[in-house]
Write a structure and sequence with these properties.
binds fe (iii) ion, binds benzoic acid, 5-stranded mixed beta sheet, globular, alpha/beta
């Protein structure tokens, strides 16, 4: 392990040193960068910064050769132990929750197409104004967070509202760095899921709403074409989204 740490730390520092030389970085710029690093820590934004600007490469690298459905980043807004929902499988929401209603449904199978019975889907999302419960003012704790299980045919379904796009916080050091670089701070509208079944690799993923802005300019670089879904009008003013998940076998078989 010290060898691995030595290699990683040496390599990362070497690349920082090269950037300083190649860009002829001044003492003023160094002091600005140092203060910014301090500010990120004081604002508690290291998890946000990592998930916006670094996690997507780790995810792509870690799962490049995994079979089954595409995953993408976890992000900083997952809360464990959301309630397990019963019929009619509706994500908890406020009485007058804004946004277009949608049913999301599909199947969870293994890589041979066999249904995975009792697979768990842990779901969380922003509301129509792009706000996550527990992290942003507005929605009450637990809003638009829940878990559902697949039935005997591997089918799942839940009802929710179509989320809105949102910006990362603009007034903190991560947002200020994004503005300083002239980049868009927006994430396109998406629904997060962790799909998990015994004996299979958990799939951390997001479904991106095809009609959302910012699909081509996600600040977190997490959009993949396979993860874009097209809500279909259901005829009663609501929508239907259909998506099937395929889980890869667990890398390390469970010990009996
Ligand atoms: C998100 O998916 O919610 C997210 C991901 C990375 C950074 C910020 C938010
Ligand atoms: Fe998100």
């Amino acid at each position: 392990m010290p060898d691995r740490a030595n290699q990683l730390i040496t390599d990362i520092l070497r690349r920082i040193h090269e950037a300083i030389v190649e860009n002829d970085i001044t003492y003023d710029e160094y002091q600005t960068a140092k203060q910014w690093l301090i500010d990120v820590g004081e604002a508690g934004e290291w998890p946000l910064f990592g998930d916006v600007y670094i996690e997507h490469v780790v995810e792509e690298q870690a799962f490049a050769s995994r079979a089954g459905s595409q995953g993408t980043i976890l992000g900083p807004f997952h809360v464990p132990n959301a309630p397990l929902l019963d019929t009619p499988y509706e994500l908890p929401h406020r009485p007058h929750e804004q946004g277009d209603r949608t049913r999301v449904s599909g199947r969870v199978t293994d890589t041979d197409g066999a249904p995975l019975v009792g697979a768990n889907l842990d779901i969380w999302q922003a509301d129509a104004d792009g706000r996550y419960s527990s992290f942003m003012p507005g929605p009450p704790e637990g809003n638009l967070r829940g878990q559902v299980r697949t039935d005997a045919e591997g089918r799942y379904e839940f009802t929710t509202v179509i989320p809105g796009p949102y910006t990362i916080p603009l007034d903190g050091p991560t947002g200020k760095m994004t503005a300083a670089a002239g980049w868009s701070p927006w994430r396109p509208a998406h629904i997060h899921l962790i799909v998990d079944a015994q004996g299979h690799e958990p799939l951390v993923t997001q479904l991106f709403i095809a009609t959302s802005d910012y699909l081509d300019s996600d600040v977190a670089s997490a959009v993949k074409p396979d993860l874009i879904v097209h809500p279909q009008p259901a005829g009663d003013g609501s929508y239907a989204i259909s998506y099937d998940f395929t889980l890869a076998p667990a890398r390390t078989p469970a010990v009996a």
